[in-house]
Amino acid sequence: MGLVRQSIPDNPIMLTVHACRGESDIHGHGLIAQEFIPKGALIWVFQPGFDQEIDDAAFARLPVNARDYLRVYAYYNVKRRVWIFSGDDDRFTNHSDTPNSVDDDTRVYAARDIQAGEEITANYNDLGETHFLGYDPDRMI
Fold this sequence. Notes:
Blueprint: E1 19-23, E2 29-33, E3 42-45, E4 52-55, H1 56-61, H2 64-73, E5 74-77, E6 82-85, E7 94-95, E8 101-103, E9 107-110, E10 119-122, H3 124-127
Parallel strand pairs: 7-10
Antiparallel strand pairs: 1-2, 2-10, 3-9, 4-6, 5-6, 8-9
């Protein structure tokens, strides 16, 4: 059985700033800025072919362990009824009631200046349903 090759766009930008997984004071691992990020800067862009959108039917066909993984590292977009899974370290972004980033469905921007070494956070309430907001995960199967 050979490798399946998927076409990746010529200009995959995903995380547009230097940030990576690191230790978090919030929850285990987080997305840590490795450089100063000014307010309004683009942090992440959904990149088809690298990041994944998984609809309800495809999610239901996944084995339980894969669904459990997505419940932790992806979020459910209620309006579009798809799971969004980031293929890069953006998936380590943790929740904050006072986040330093904002999301417009396919892009993430700095809500304020973010210092190098600071954790990049999002308000999960703005993203849709997630594992950490107390929804019933079996409802999504």
